Amino acid sequence: MRSLLIFTLVGAGAQLVDGALGMAFGVTATTLLVLSGVGAAQASAAVHLAEVGTTFASGLSHWKFKNIDWALVLKLGAPGAVGAFVGATVLSSLATEHAAPLMAAILVAIGTYVLLRFSLRTPLTFGARGTSHSAKFLAPLGLFGGFIDASGGGGWGPVTTSTLLSQGKTAPRTVIGSVSASEFLVSVSASLGFLIGLREEFLANWPVVVGLMVGGVVAAPFAAWLVSRVSPALLGTAVGGVIVLTNSQKLVHFFGIDWPWSSVIYGVIVVVWASLVFYAWRVSRAPRYAPEPGADAAATAGDTDSESVTR
């Protein structure tokens, strides 16, 4: 009962981060599971099965708050499902001793990307809700994101959300809502891949699955509401640093790096992380949103009209 409550809280916290950033539920939850001793493939399987429920609830919540572009969901989610199935099959076929360091390396890379992406390149809010991305662009992005997500225990959001935000063609709230909704397809497909690859081991960690799912579902509506109110720079930087620090310990142990060099590595990570958090905090206090397209022209026209009336 105690472990079920703990994983419920983990699921709620991970969903709050995921709903606010459009990423990090999988990498956050998988990191904690692997550190607690769960096998790499089993951890990814449990997280993706839990995400079937959390992403469905998240999609409904974002739909209620009008954060979804369904064309973007289909063009991104369908190839993402294919990539996730392949990634789950590959991870299931690896031995535990090979899967753990591979997943840790992928998560360190993802965490570093999230850390730098949100601390040094804070996304702006753009005016258009719809997307002008073509299927030729979205299909390979979804395929790659789905494969990384299943094989690394997370990564759908960091790959797809960050890429779409960097394009500047779609409003961040629409990107986050659409990516969250499309992740339902990815989670279902990955779960099927793990079911085929792991068989009887698939449901062995059912308390983890139930806890993560319940916590995520409960937190999903609040997370969707937070998407336009939280500071992406500060939250993304904090989460990215946690992912890098925790998974780097796995790699340090795998390569047999002992004291004092292990302490030096951790110290460098903490110092860099703290510096970026401070920088992100300063950025979050500055104006974070770009003006709506045409807002300046409208304001100028309004000023002109006012002057005419005054005259």
Automatic annotation (TrEMBL):
Coiled coil: none annotated. It holds the Pfam family TauE. It comes from Mycolicibacterium poriferae. This is Probable membrane transporter protein. Keywords: Cell membrane, Membrane, Transmembrane, Transmembrane helix. Belongs to the 4-toluene sulfonate uptake permease (TSUP) (TC 2.A.102) family. Its main location: membrane. InterPro entries: TM_pro_TauE-like, TSUP/Inactive_protease-like. The lineage of its organism: Bacteria, Bacillati, Actinomycetota, Actinomycetes, Mycobacteriales. The chain crosses the membrane at residues 70-92, 98-116, 137-156, 176-196, 208-227, 259-281.
